[in-house]
Each structure stands twice: as structure tokens, then as C-alpha cells.
Amino acid sequence: MSWTRKHLLDIESLTAEEIVTVLDTARAFKAVGERAIKKVPALRGKTVVNLFVEPSTRTRISFELSELRLSADIINFTAEASSLKKGETLKDTARNLEALNTDFIVMRHSASGAPHFLSRVLNASVINAGDGAHEHPTQALLDAFTIRERKGRIAGLNVTILGDILYSRVARSDIWALTKLGAKVTLCGPSTLVPKVFEEMGCRVTYDVEDAIREADIINLLRIQHERQRKTMFPSLGEYSSLFGLNKARLARTKPDALIMHPGPINRGVEIDSDIADCGRSVILEQVTNGLAVRMAVLFLVNGGKGPQEVAP
Amino acid sequence: MQRALQRIAHEIAERNESSREVVLVGIQRGGVPLAQRLREALSTIWAHPVPMGQLDVSMHRDDLDRRAAPNVQPTVIPFDVSGKTVVLVDDVLFSGRTVRAAMDALNDFGRPTCIQLAVLIDRGHRELPIKADFVGKNVPTSPKERVRVRLVTPPGADEVILEKP
Known about the structure:
Oligomer: heterodimer
Radius of gyration of chain B: 15 Å
Number of domains of chain B: 1
Mean pLDDT of chain A: 92
CATH architecture of the largest domain in chain A: 3-Layer(aba) Sandwich
């Protein structure tokens, strides 16, 4: 057993052993979701604030349901309906939340490092639900969980991440998690969105989509993050789709057991053809199911990380 | 130890006349290999297979915010516990808190007719009003000591180790 952390801020600072601990714990929580009674009392009496300063639907719903299934009390907080609009600073907002004796803050923010900052000024456990283009640790953990469950292992697999890498916190967290666990990661997309500097993270970078998908065991597609792009990074969505989109012809040239993943929301007809999103090799909805189990596991583990660290016999 | 397990199996058989209603549930981790041994013995006594499950109680513990998160093992209950006599099996009975958590966890799977408790070692120092129905051996201990049960296959060299602090 190797988990002593009070926060989950990023994947970069985790060891491979810690990542495996989350995945092993998540396996037990996935089984809870398959029972008639899908709720356990592990966080009974604890209060979780979901502080989503940037819009999110699936991650927020997934966290909320995970917290409910752990029997926690939850408060949802979105930027639109808050004093952040009235000029309150993030630190003051968070301190006010803490004055209500909250135990966990799950945070989504458009500024990279915002959860790290909160973890230094608060006593509550902070879980990063996505910060800017920096990291989205629970997404990487659920991706790793899905790959391990389907393929039985992660070490030695070829994982291709295809799409907007530059603006993607999912890509960064995935790269950290998968390389720590021994996968060989290839990045591909328009050269404006896949800078060569990512090779320093231990990845292969290619701009030839055929080369990227030929030997891949996993093809992880990413959405184009229009909302983060400050200038036009490629001529048109049509051109992106024809050059990098996963269509039937390209799928036919991949390994027959290669899995298709996508963190969602998917843009049908852009990065992925509609019928591929629904085909048997797509594990996109399994990722959603596994996201619940992984988030329950993370909350369960950081709760233990708050206590004294000796383990009773 | 094998003799103690045989005796527990015979006591379970004696207590429960309708053998088809009895299922065994081992508490992770120490109770699971013991439940397997008991299942073998009971299946021989009753001449029919006895269902067995394994239960992890980590999510139901009462000390989760006082310790590092426990290592969660799989829970597998491949039958409906409602209407059954569930014999919970653990290696060492100490404070009784694990058994309390196990009864809560079992509740989420259905409503057994009755729950009985079988342990290999009862070391005393109960903190809850819980008493085992079947005990392999009572071992007086000091609260600071540790008791470990090691089962090996084949069963010849099993051992119970009492560690002084």
C-alpha cells in the first residue's frame, strides 16, 4: 500500500506505484457500481465542494455521482452563479468555503496551477478536475484503468494520441501516466498543435497519421479545443478531418484489436466518423463508466491521506 | 490447525440442519483462505458443494479518516444472501470492528436469515458487543501484541505467530 497523499493535483508528481494503487482500488469500486445497492459509507459525514470555475458537464457529473456513492454531502459551485463574478479572489472564495468546514474541494479552473495554489492555502484536500492546459489527472487515471482492463497490461503497448495536443490537459496527464507505466506514446496532429518539444516528455512525435496509427494498440482521439486557441491553428475543420480524422479507410489500416478511446465530448465527423464512435472497438462509454470508479478510488485514497499514516494491524 | 478447522466444520454442520441454506463468506484477506478450507471440509461432511464468497470491509470501516487508506481487495459474492445462513469467516477476532463492518457490508447484498461468525483465533480485547459462534482456539494476548495466521498448501505447515512488540 503506497498512498499517503492528501491531494491529487497532477500525474507528474505520482510514482508508477501510486498510479497502480489507484487503479487497483478503482477495480473494487467498479464492482460497487454493479451491485443493486451502489453506495458505501466510506465518506459519510464528509463535505465535498465541487468548485467548477470553468464549465464542465461530464467531469462534474462523474465527480458528483462518485461523491454521492461514497455517502458524502456535496455542494456544487459554478463560476457563473458565484461571487467570483463580483470580484472576489479565488483564495477568498476558497477560504469562505473552508470556513464552512468542507473536507474536500474538487476543482476545475481555466488557470494552470490553480489547484496547486489552493492546496497550499487550505486545509481541505484538493482534487484537480482539470486546470487550464496543464493536467486532468482523473481522466488519465481512467484512461489507464480502461486500457489495463481491456488489454490486461499497459507496459509495452503502443498508445497513439491524435489531435490537439498543445491545448490538451488530457494529453499531458495521459503522457505522464502512460509513460510512467511503461507504454510507448506517439503523438500526432497538425504541426501547429503538436510541437516537437513534447519529445522531451518521452514521446514520439509524427505528423503522418498513417505512421501514427499502423502499430497502435490504443488510439486516443482528442477534440480540437477551439475555446483555448488564440489564433487559427489550421485552415478548416474539413481539412483537419480529411488529414487527421479517424474514418473507415484509416481504421482498416490499424491493428484489428486496436481500441478507440476519446475523453469526450466527441465531435462526430471531425476527429471521429460517426459509425466508428459506435463500433465494437470503441471504448468511449466504458471510459465514462470507469471514470466513476476511478474518482471514487481517488476520493477514498486522499481521505486516508489526511489521517496519521500508521496502519493499524 | 487442520484439526481445529475440522472441528469448526463439524460444529457448523451440527448447528445448521438445513445444509443447503448455508453459505460461507471469508473476510479479506485472512478469512478467505480459511473459508476455502472450511468449504472443503463442509462439502465433504454434507456431500454437496457449499457456496463461498469473499468480502472486503474497507469501505465500511469506522476508522477511515484516522489512518492511511486501506488496500481494497475484491468483494465477490456470487449468490443471493437473502434467506441464507451466512457464516462469516475470519482468521483473528480482536476488537470486533472488522466484523461490525462486515455485517454492514453484507447488508448491501441482501437480508440473510441469520449471520454466524467463525474465527480461527479469538485473542480477546473486544471493543464491541460481538461474540464468535465458532472458535478454533482462544489465545490470551496483550493488546500490543500482533497475531498472524499463515496458511500454506498443503496444510501441514500452517502456523499462528504471536509477535511481541
